[in-house]
């Protein structure tokens, strides 16, 4: 994969040209302090100059930014289904008002705050109707949905955006490994400044360990792509994020709760020719899809010929689309060919071979037993282990301590 091919797939690069064919999006440049926070580094390294010399060598704890708006992340929405998130945010532990909420990290010396960015993100979410899906230049934090109360990437405020981004291995990969994985990448000697101000335009990280499986998000648009297993492995083998002046952006995309996962497709382009299409969610069988695919294929081909191919300069890439019930096609995302992009119902070897042929192949799961297992985002491995010292063991002990404190 060449660097220029990867850079063309950044959402702030392609969205202005395809805006009317995509979903509403607000793009915000991210300041260097917030990038350091996402990378698990001190957001403001000079703020603690008097700390002991070896402090930087210790891994930082998982801290959410201080919230100036008072809107805490992910209030529980399923009170009748007890789970760790709803228990820790319930009246049983924390009282009934925001003033009663006990925040053990409130006075932590390393807890950062980003008031200007918080205002910009909250305003953008309001502009998009009150809920948005976040992503960085390439990837969305769909591997971190276990952190949310409803198991999706839906965010309604800055606190929720920060929690998902900080918890995501896909986001950590964007920061530390995406450009470095290109065969022609050379780290620049000089560094251009990151964004100092916050402006909106349309146009690892110390978190709990994620499941190594990722895939469709059950009825919600799957923005961005990242093989979490490979990304996590590379993150341990490569250096973490280094501020070399490269600008990262946060894209907030309008949230549509009624989207149907069987209507989303990944399209593979080889040598500027559409060679294959796969259903975007290979982990499920949709009975209506085998028959409907014959109607969808010509619509996707026409969309590629009329919209994508004339305006997107790369020779090899993938793009994701959503086909509405009225037949209109919406562009969701671009991804580079190969690398960390998932081939879904194909293999990259098959796709390389199909690039030499003349026929477009359209693949969907044809029967219940033919799904590809293990591609669905689940929960961290820590939450599957109930042994001494496991995540659940630590959680239950902390819950008991908090209950004793309240009583």
TrEMBL record:
Residues 224-236 have a biased composition (Acidic residues). This is Cell division cycle protein 123. Signal peptide: none annotated. InterPro entries: CDC123. PANTHER family: CELL DIVISION CYCLE PROTEIN 123 HOMOLOG, D123 PROTEIN. Pfam families: D123. The gene is LOC100276597. Belongs to the CDC123 family. Residues 193-237 are annotated as: Disordered.
């Amino acid at each position: 994969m060449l660097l220029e091919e990867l850079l063309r797939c950044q959402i702030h690069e392609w969205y202005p040209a395809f805006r009317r064919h995509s979903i509403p999006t607000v793009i915000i440049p991210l300041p260097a302090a917030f990038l350091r926070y996402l990378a698990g580094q001190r957001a403001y390294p000079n703020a603690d100059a008097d700390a002991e010399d070896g402090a930087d060598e210790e891994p930082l704890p998982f801290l959410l930014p201080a919230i100036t708006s008072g809107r805490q992340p992910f209030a529980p929405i399923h009170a009748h289904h007890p789970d760790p998130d709803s228990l820790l945010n319930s009246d049983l532990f924390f009282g009934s008002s925001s003033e009663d909420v006990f925040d053990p990290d409130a006075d932590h010396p390393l807890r950062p705050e980003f008031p200007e960015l918080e205002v910009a993100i909250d305003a953008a979410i309001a502009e998009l109707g009150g809920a948005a899906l976040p992503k960085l230049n390439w990837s969305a934090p769909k591997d971190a949905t276990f952190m949310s109360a409803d198991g999706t990437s839906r965010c309604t405020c800055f606190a929720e955006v920060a929690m998902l981004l900080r918890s995501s291995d896909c986001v950590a990969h964007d920061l530390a490994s995406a450009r470095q994985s290109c065969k022609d990448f050379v780290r620049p000697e000089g560094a251009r400044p990151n964004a100092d101000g916050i402006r909106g335009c349309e146009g690892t990280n110390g978190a709990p360990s994620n499941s190594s499986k990722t895939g469709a998000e059950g009825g919600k648009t799957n923005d961005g792509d990242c093989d979490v297993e490979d990304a996590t492995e590379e993150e341990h083998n490569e250096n973490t994020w280094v501020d070399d002046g490269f600008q990262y952006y946060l894209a907030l995309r309008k949230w549509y709760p009624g989207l149907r996962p069987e209507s989303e497709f990944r399209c593979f382009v080889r040598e500027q020719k559409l060679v294959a299409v796969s259903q975007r969610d290979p982990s499920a069988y949709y009975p209506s899809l085998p028959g409907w695919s014959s109607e969808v294929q010509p619509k996707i081909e026409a969309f590629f010929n009329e919209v994508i191919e004339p305006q997107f300069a790369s020779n090899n890439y993938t793009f994701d689309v959503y086909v509405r019930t009225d037949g209109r096609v919406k562009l969701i995302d671009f991804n580079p060919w190969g690398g960390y992009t998932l081939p879904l119902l194909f293999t990259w070897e098959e796709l390389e071979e199909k690039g030499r042929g003349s026929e477009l192949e359209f693949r969907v799961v044809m029967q219940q037993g033919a799904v590809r297992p293990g591609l669905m985002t689940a929960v961290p491995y820590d939450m599957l282990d109930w042994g001494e010292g496991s995540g659940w063991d630590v959680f239950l002990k902390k819950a008991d301590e908090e209950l004793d404190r309240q009583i």
